[in-house]
Write a structure and sequence with these properties.
436 residues, alpha/beta, 2 domains, globular
């Protein structure tokens, strides 16, 4: 079993909401505790909760807090199994602060390398004490001792020979395990599960005139992609580079935009592909349904000094008539997100397939194509009903993208592209280009 390499920072600045007189819980663990609490007790998104809480941490503590919080959210099903087996009490019946503290502690004991067991146990107990649950301190301490003695051995012994077993051991909902088992077989299904329990690689899209300033390792076949160890804030501030996975950049490239063309980006936010399209297009119309996300997109465009993009707040299925037609359309549709579970740790617990919506969006996009134009359909999922089944249902001629990008050719349908986390070291993206 792989262990996440975690190195807790000493940190001297207090975490949000912490009592500065109480130094018994490190700022990083306090932030991780609050993120996990908000995700499971308030249905918050992990990345948004983390951004709102981690501003006061130094860089080392920030990395530790994020790894701890995200890892706990990803592995929560397996952790709860260990807590219930060794704590002999249903997790759902525990007080929320106790539940969160035990999950954090169990994660460090079972999955984290480089964390001292006594530190994980002591601070889990102190988190419960800080929540003013003195009556639960002894219970928490007892369960943490049992977890320290037996949790890793218990988890290591869990089988994964069948979908339901693998879902428990690798911490996924049963339906995802069954879907991947049916579509890919045991070996690839387990590969997908394991790959998306690790933190994703860091890749940036580099502005064409700044590769020398960024450095990093080039990605074969993706000319503006660089693998880097970390993202320098100055790159973002100066618009030199931005985080964007290889799979996402491949989807933008596959749109095949030529200089001067008019392009419709039908589901534009957060804007990585929008910026990518704008580097070549004459004009990009970026459609976003949610006003708040549209405002964030406009702010991103300003930061990167992109002047040839027009943001439209609208439902992609009901486009304003005055938008006219386009040479290229990109439909980066909402989906279950089963290809980006590594970067969105809570998504596996809320994911659902959306093939009906995807079909509606693609049909709306096809109606806006000018004669001779193409529509590129992309989704960040590895799930046949949302991937090739959507394209097949349309009955539209398609380009052979596998011939253009053989390294990312779909293993079963070579006319499509499919990046696989356990094969390509990137997020999972399905890409098809339609030529009606």
């Amino acid at each position: 079993m792989s262990r996440d390499r975690l190195e807790p920072g000493a940190g001297t600045r207090a975490a949000p909401g912490a009592d500065p007189r109480d130094a018994s819980v490190t700022p990083a663990r306090q932030v991780a505790y609050e993120v996990v609490r908000r995700v499971f007790e308030e249905d918050a998104y992990a990345d948004r909760a983390f951004r709102s809480l981690a501003g006061g941490l130094d860089e080392r503590d920030r990395r530790f807090a994020q790894q701890l919080a995200y890892g706990t959210v990803r592995r929560v099903r397996t952790l709860d199994h260990a807590i219930e087996a060794l704590g002999r009490r249903p997790v759902r019946k525990l007080d929320p602060p106790v539940r969160v503290a035990l999950r954090l502690g169990a994660y460090q004991l079972v999955f984290a390398a480089g964390v001292a067991p006594h530190a994980a146990a002591n601070e889990s107990v102190e988190l419960v004490r800080r929540a003013r649950l003195e009556r639960a301190v002894a219970f928490t301490n007892a369960v943490m001792r049992r977890l320290a003695e037996g949790a890793r051995r218990l988890v290591d012994a869990l089988p994964d020979g069948a979908p339901a077993e693998a879902a428990l051991r690798h911490s996924y909902p049963d339906w995802i395990a069954h879907a991947w088992w049916e579509e890919w077989g045991r070996s690839d299904a387990l590969g997908l599960m394991k790959a998306q329990n690790d933190a994703p690689e860091t890749v940036v899209h580099v502005r064409a005139d700044s590769p020398g300033e960024i450095g990093g390792d080039p990605v074969p076949g993706i000319p503006d992609a660089r693998r880097v160890t970390s993202v320098d804030q100055t790159w973002l501030d100066r618009g030199l580079a931005r985080p964007q996975s290889v799979g996402s950049q491949l989807a933008g490239l596959a749109a095949g935009v030529r200089p001067g063309e008019r392009v419709l980006d039908l589901c534009a936010a957060p804007g990585g592909k929008t910026l990518q399209l704008a580097e070549t297009a004459g004009e990009v119309v970026a459609v976003e349904m949610h006003p708040g996300r549209a405002r964030e997109l406009e702010e991103t465009l300003k930061r990167y000094q992109t002047a040839n993009v027009h943001v439209v707040v609208a439902d992609g299925r009901e486009l304003p008539r005055q938008l006219g037609t386009f040479d290229r359309v990109l439909v980066d549709a909402p989906c279950s997100g089963l290809g980006v579970l590594a970067s969105r740790p809570d998504l596996r617990w809320r994911a659902r397939p959306l093939p009906e919506l995807q079909l509606e969006l693609v049909r709306a996009g096809l109606e806006r194509l000018a004669p001779g134009g193409t529509l590129t359909y992309a989704v960040c999922t590895v799930h046949r009903p949302e991937n090739e089944a959507v394209v097949d249902a349309l009955g539209v001629p398609i380009d052979d993208l596998g011939r253009e990008w053989p390294a990312f050719r779909h293993p079963c349908r070579p006319e499509f592209l499919l990046t696989l986390p356990h094969v390509h070291r990137t997020s999972g993206f399905f890409v098809a280009r339609l030529r009606p």
